[in-house]
Amino acid sequence: MKQTQLIMGMPVSVEIVSEDAVATRKLFDEVFSYFSCADEKFSPYKETSEISAINRGQLKESDRSDDMKLIFALSEETKKLTRGYFDIVGRDGKYDPSGIVKGWAILNATRILKKRGVKNFYIEAGGDIQVSGKNREGKKWRVGIENPFGAKIIDRAKNGSKEIVKTVYLKDEGIATSGTYIRGQHIYNPKKREVAIDDIVSLTVIGPNVYEADRFATAAFAMGREGVNFIESLEGFEGYHIDKDGIAAMTSSFEKYTQKP
Q1: What's the CA gap between 173 and 8, in Å, rounded?
Q2: CB of 219 within 8 A of CB of 78?
Q3: Using CA atoms, how far apart are residues 118 and 131, in angstroms rounded to an integer?
């Protein structure tokens, strides 16, 4: 069973393989409801969100929700781990936790499914994906990295309407892609805030879960060409980038995920 809803300004898809009998409408509603709640709390585009209240100076640090305190703590941790290349403070001086919240929310949604006994599923939000177990064919989940030159979205490789430049096969990993080919220059280098990142156009990271992949993909993209080398230095992560000339570079063990099962 598969359902998709537009939440957080992006398509959110949940697929549960049919052998998991617990795949009920109520369960799908629970997952989508969680994403909606996360959006209501963390979206800087909603005037009623908690992050918007913080940006307006209307909410003291001590009055922040536990989730908000956690995201700020995780953001600070990520900033240190990436040598300052991850920062939720935007060019305008306001907080925008989007670079970490999406992966974190997807991971939390997977915990909802696992708590309900679901073993085989994938959750995708705006191209960032967490998979678990096997697909409907009893094999690893197949995920496509799309050609960023003329791409609309990251989609699974079996979607024949998209030009896929690389296919990977995942079982219990997360995958996230950062780039400028859809939303333009929305990612910036915190160390050179006014300089556009134009040497690479997309960077995909595979990690132990989508939260980890997402936060490091954002930071690595901000590093430009050096980002894939940063991913190389992280144990348990692999990366793949496409530069402005359409030339790809990848970490040393990325190809292990391209082996068809």
Answers
A1: 23
A2: yes
A3: 12
Q: How far apart are CA 39 and CA 131, in angstroms?
A: 22
Rounded to 5°, angle at Cα 155 from 249 and 176: 55
Give the SS3 label for residue 61: helix
Q: Which two tokens stand for residue 110?
A: 């997977």
Beta carbons of 119 and 113 less than 8 angstroms apart: no
Q: How many CB atoms lie within 10 A of CB 26?
A: 8
Neighbours of 81 (CB within 10 A): 15
Residue 190, both tokens: 């915190």
Beta bridge partners of residue 6, listed in sequence order: 11
Q: Which residue type, as a one-letter code, is found at position 52?
A: S
Q: Residue 111 carries which side chain, given as an amino acid letter?
A: R
Digit-by-digit pLDDT tens for the chain (261 residues) are 899 999 988 999 999 986 555 668 889 999 999 999 999 999 999 999 999 999 999 999 999 999 999 999 999 999 999 999 999 998 889 999 999 999 999 999 999 999 999 999 999 998 899 999 999 999 999 999 989 886 443 333 344 456 899 999 999 999 999 986 555 456 777 888 777 788 999 999 999 999 999 999 999 999 999 999 999 999 999 999 999 999 999 999 999 999 988
Q: Buried b / exposed e across 200-238, counting CB within 10 Å, b at 16+?
A: bbbbbbbbebbbbbbbbbbbbbbbbeebbebbbebeebb
Quick check: 20 and 117 in contact, CB under 8 A?
A: yes
Measured distance CA(105)–CA(63) in Å, rounded: 22
Confirm or reject CATH 1.20.1310.10 for domain 2-258, answering yes or no: no
Q: Is 11 exposed, middle or buried (0-12, 13-18, 19+ CB in 10 A)?
A: middle
- Of 100, 122, 127, 125, the closest CA to residue 110 belongs to 122
